Amino acid sequence: MIFKLLQKIFGTQHERDIKKLRPIADEIKAHEPALLALSDKQLRAKTSEFRRRLGAGETLDDILPEAFALVKEACRRLYGKNWYVRGHEITWDMVHFDCQLIGGAVLHQGKIAEMATGEGKTLVATLPIYLNALAGKGVHLITVNDYLASRDREWMGPVYEFLGLSAGCLQQRMDSDERQEEYRADITSGTNSEFGFDYLRDNMSIHKERQVQRGHHYAIVDEVDSVLIDEARTPLIISGPVEQSNEQYEALAPAVDRLYHQQQRITKKLMDEAEPLIENGSEFEAGKKLLMVKKGSPKDKRFLALMENAKLQRLVHRTELDLMGDKLMGGKEESPIMKLVSDLYFTIDEKSNVADLTEKGRRTISSGKLDMFVLPEIDEEEHALDRELEGLRADKSLDYDIKLQREMELEAKRWQLYDRMNTVSQRIHAVSQLLRAYSLFERDVDYIVSDNKVVIVDEFTGRLMPSRRFSDGLHQALEAKERVKVGEANQTLATITLQNYYKMYDKLAGMTGTADTEAQEFHDIYKLDVVVVPTNRPLIRHNFSDCIYKTEREKFKAVINEVREMHKLGRPSLVGTISVEKSELLGKMLRTERIPHHILNAKYHEKEAEIVARAGQRGAVTIATNMAGRGTDIKLGEGIAKLGGLHIIGTERHESRRIDNQLRGRAGRQGDPGSSRFYISLEDDLMRLFGSDRIMKIMDRLGIEEDQPIEHSLVSRSIETAQKRVEAHNLEIRKHLLKYDDVMNKQREIIYAERQRSLDEDNLKEHMLEMVDDLLEEKMEEFVPPDTLPDEWNLRGLSDWLRRHLAILVRFDHVDLETVEAEHIFDRLQQAVRAAYDDRERRFGPETMREIERVAILRSVDSRWKDHLYAMDLLKEGIGLRAHGGKDPLVEYKHEGYNLFSEMIADVKLGAAEFLFRVQVGEPQKIQKKLEPKPQPAEATLTSHDSSSPGALSEAPKQPARLIAGDGSSKPARVPVKVGDKIGRNEPCPCGSGKKYKKCCGS
């Protein structure tokens, strides 16, 4: 109450923001008369003048009013000019309104401008893009697809070119030379995946001149909610094929298929038994039967029909709570729910998108050989190996070579244990993914089959995504289910989440028609504030209350009736669906009624532009799967405004209010009339999973019949509450992903900085010698441990290690153990290494040696980083189990991730040193060809590391990726490696003692 009163007095936050910005629009307009008097040539010369002023110390904010006025004047002078955009001739007819000037200022400030559909977001972007491009560091305009990137470049490019700036555009099939050219432009447009993959590819490049990006200065993200929220669970991944067979998916698919159909028969029988129990009033028994169906086949049609009854919904819910309560009272005995579902073959948790085998399912699918699907207990065997290794290392009587051979045999046994575990784990994983494919993924909803390939359907846009693949074997499982060719599994070679990619920009801004509902998330994750920019003309669209029906059948009848009425009136209507399947069903019903219409979904995406162009014409009926986000305005035909404009019909609420608002926003553009209404049934997924119980009570209380709708603001608020619950759930998933990726992000920054140093510096000799010194210090601690007597040192082992790994021979046969110090041993090692280094430099020549140093570091970093990413993937997959032991999985992930990273840093140094001291080059002039890496194709696929995410963008080089055994956490412990600034051994110790580091803390 007090909050609303304060708002009336002081205005909303958005109103206060706009009030502060209005004077900027007046300042901009004050510059217009002076610019009007300039010739085109003088106008163009202002760009050079602005750059000189920036060089002299002025800021972008200082020149903003004049720069914005300059862009506006350029648009005025281009008025009436023609040019081609995507093959169609257009006539330029746009000059900035005051509200667009305000929107431009919001974007320049690094905020999100929420602007209604049709308010000219693309034109608004020209203002801050021009201003920030003056800095000469490149501006990126990020769009949701290649078509819009190309369209915006061709549409707005002449404005920038008129003012003397260059504009480029990234497209999917471009090679690195073409990409470099586009990035050299003052302004570059492209999709988030193009920019993200270029960043990853640049950090896999072995030559600086092959890198394409030139930093992350300023970016504007179009449809920012779609990119930073809808796709935020989607990590960008460059992947390579794993050296493992996919035969298990094809081999196990028939067994899972049988299991699935046997389960369908069980749930049918349960429904047959439950219905008479309900009629007889045997509530508890009926509740148990229905709960079993819910656990085994939650999308069973008869079950869904019964769940329309609020009493039965409450019965199932109460039965589950009662059985859970029995478990709490029952101590350590098997859970009553587990007993209840023991007759099923598998269980499904629809909300968390997970399917699990029961004991009965395991017995059936393994033909009685339960160990096929039970992870072996290897702890005892591993502990026995550890004890044997400890005894072996403590045995001073054994010859070193014999001891080394025995150690290798024991380690080989350890890897055999891991291999056994890995084989069973992969089999369990394959069955789990197949169960998900059969039970939770629907053909023509989540994917389609085209040309004998499984093609993902984007849940937000309804577009086909032929270049994407689900990861973790899910795509292979879907292929096995549909009996098409099963593709290769992939291993991560480089990855970054979109969240962390966009955080690299010095300044980030965004624009969309719907951001305010997610304002808190934008602020928390990206530190972006949302400003709602007022419309140029008042919005007069009328949003009718939702119509709620008990059944989907009655809902669709009502939708057809409304479409028929609109068609008779001559008003165009846009019908939004959430899946290909529903759009096809509606199309069939409209054909039966002989109502002409067009369908825009994943199956008909080729006709998209043509269909959208007709959607605002007299009597047009367009069915669109998730029309929101398609980036094209629907313009009304002649006389349509007088009839009431475009009418929007939503056939189901999306889980996000923002997507619903985007659909509504297609009507009422630029002050046009329009209207919208959503039709909902209690069988819709959102209502069924999150909101129907309360609404069913209301409908029962009012005595509402099946074909009678309910329209009430209370019901609309209940639906909005359900959507808020889903949005909160999805936000937690995105935050969870970010927390885990933050661990990887810090590691990625260190690795990529090391790579970039290797590319930027001309001479890496000192850096390489420092890495070798680190290795020698580590080996000194292993073979010449501190606080031990000289006769306990293993000098022969140290000598053998140096010979095996670095091909350097150092003998300690004549060392006097009575007088020798560890420091003398280290100095001798250093001298031998430097002598070998100098010898190789004399043989190859300084220029070739510099190239060898560079490639040695890059190759070692890339190889170990790839294996580290795989180890981190494995760690993340199993880390959730730590919660059962009372440990925080995230804390454990950070701790073990650091240990793995420390091991990897040590391995990088060893790998680089081995390459440098062992590489053989016949003729120095051939070194470049010998060290040149294989080119990487730029073909993108998609993977998903998260069962709840739609998928992760992935790019797959075709060279094989080496697999590492185990999860990396079971290797023998290494001495921790400090990651940070290197302190030279002869530098003063940072502790302040005044001694050299090697004689103090470094000793």
TrEMBL record:
Location of region: Disordered: 927-1003
Lineage: Bacteria, Pseudomonadati, Candidatus Hydrogenedentota, Candidatus Abyssobacteria
UniProt record similarity statement: Belongs to the SecA family.
GO cellular component entries: cell envelope Sec protein transport complex; cytosol; plasma membrane
All copies of domain Helicase ATP-binding, residue ranges: 102-260
All copies of domain Helicase C-terminal, residue ranges: 555-727
Uppermost EC category: translocase
Presence of the UniProt keyword Cytoplasm in the record: yes
Keywords, in A-Z order: ATP-binding, Cell membrane, Cytoplasm, Membrane, Metal-binding, Nucleotide-binding, Protein transport, Translocase, Translocation, Transport, Zinc
Residues at which ATP binds: 100, 118-122, 633
Gene Ontology MF terms: ATP binding; metal ion binding; protein-exporting ATPase activity
Primary localization class, coarse: membrane
EC numbers for this chain: 7.4.2.8
A matching Pfam family: SecA_DEAD
Main function: Part of the Sec protein translocase complex. Interacts with the SecYEG preprotein conducting channel. Has a central role in coupling the hydrolysis of ATP to the transfer of proteins into and across the cell membrane, serving as an ATP-driven molecular motor driving the stepwise translocation of polypeptide chains across the membrane.
Protein name, as recorded: Protein translocase subunit SecA
Domain of life: Bacteria
Cofactor entry: Zn(2+)
Reactions accelerated catalytically: ATP + H2O + cellular proteinSide 1 = ADP + phosphate + cellular proteinSide 2
Record's subunit section: Monomer and homodimer. Part of the essential Sec protein translocation apparatus which comprises SecA, SecYEG and auxiliary proteins SecDF. Other proteins may also be involved.
InterPro entries from the UniProt entry: Helicase_ATP-bd, Helicase_C-like, P-loop_NTPase, SEC_C_motif, SecA, SecA_CS, SecA_DEAD, SecA_motor_DEAD
Cellular localisation: Cell membrane; Cytoplasm; Membrane
Domain SecA family profile: 3-711
